[in-house]
Amino acid sequence: MGIFRGIYWWIVMPALVLLLSVAPGYSQERMRVGLTSLAPTTLPVWVAKRQGYFKDVGLNVEPIVFTSGTINSQAALAGEIDIALGSGTEVFTIRLAGEDARFFFGISNFMPFKLYVHPNIKSAADLKGKRLAVSRFGAQSDFLTRYAVSKLGLDPAKDVTVLQIGSTPARYAALKSGGVDGTIMWFPVTLIAAKEGYRMLADLNDIITDWPYLGYYAMAKVLRGERDKVMRYLRAHVKALEWLKANPAGGVKVLTDDVKISPAYAEAGYKEFMKSFAFDGRIPTKGFELLMESEAGKLKGKFKVTDFIDESFPRELAVRR
What we know:
Helix content is 49%, strand content 17%. The protein is an alpha/beta fold. It folds into two domains: 22-111 and 211-320, D-Maltodextrin-Binding Protein, domain 2; 114-207, 3-Layer(aba) Sandwich (D-Maltodextrin-Binding Protein, domain 2), CATH 3.40.190.10. The protein has a five-stranded mixed beta sheet with strand order 2-1-3-10-4, sandwiched between helices. It has a five-stranded mixed beta sheet with strand order 7-6-8-5-9, with helices on both faces. Helix 2 (43-50) packs across helix 11 (227-246) and helix 4 packs across helix 5. The termini are far apart.
């Protein structure tokens, strides 16, 4: 009897191992996700990976952090990533290259910029004759600065002087040195500016209330050919958002450990970005129109919002959930 039992296990065990290796719960499809930068908006990606939510839906997700949106969009265009977490302007870059890409799921629908000025500027009227810094002429920071000035009741072409300075840290350095009188900035430089006594003259989120700051996009052929895979990814993404909402301390830890935010700013970063996350993946079409307006010099009126977005993914996710 012992001999037969031994033969039984020699036959059954390899078959059992093979069966388990191909069972749905154990099969993991590789998925490469491009990230424009390592920023608080990538929190759901790291949480879903840490908590095993991607594995739960059969995905082995590989986040790839790039140094700019341009490189992220180039990777999508070259097929080096499956989907990308980035801005709508990255989709514009791909479309202008003659290929079809779509922004298909909103992640953060808010305007992160704030206009900071010297403490002696106490109102919008005090901006007259002052110098404001942008990254470069024609860039999004240029459009948003001029747009904010106009909403404050001034003429950006006549009432202020706009100077090209560079990145947010470079613009803040120019503000501190007295080279300019104000600039739009975002987290965490805004926290530093407030702590050092500079005045927030305008929160652009109050001026532009529905802005498609960041979301997921992909080549149209990927969205058509791998729809089920993308939908599974989105289910894990939303589950990560729910975990973040229920676990503030855990979210702060992920910010410091995975996103590499300084512990001094991590809690504020969690609060700032958590309120911006779109649990339903909605894409703000009016904000997208304004985003297109900010890139008018490149797009030249050739396109409509529907040329850049695919709203079927948030709709399907709502039905499935």
